[in-house]
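To: structure subgroup
Subject: Chain for Friday's discussion

All,

I'm putting the inputs and outputs inline so they're searchable in the archive.
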Amino acid sequence: MLFEFLGFTDDCRVKLVGNQLREVAKSWWLVTREAKAHRGSVITWKISKVEFYQRFIPLAYRKDKSAEFASLRQGQLNIDEYLAQFFTLLRFAPQVAKNDAAVFDQFIQRLNPEIRTLVNVKQPSNFADTLN
């Protein structure tokens, strides 16, 4: 989200994050970047994120977090806490994350029933309206 706010291009994102890596991750990045350059492949932000997650975040952990996202409900959380958890776990649910309408719908459907009813009465069309 910070990259979007600052208006960073995909190329800038890849370079910035590549320069922030350390130790094993830095070595992995240098080898990966060179291999892609040798093949004439373009390294996009989307591809680099996917490859990084696949290499450094264990599959079992990703599955656990995906299940945690699937079962997430507001419950006892206040809206700020729920919002933070929702977006933290959303990265482990790419099938939802790639569709803004699905993200919006999932967020609302997992609110506590009384809050969901209040939100639905207002018929919000985006997250800002929903949070208000």
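Points worth raising on Friday:
The longest helix spans residues 23-39.
The chain has ten helices and no strands.

D.
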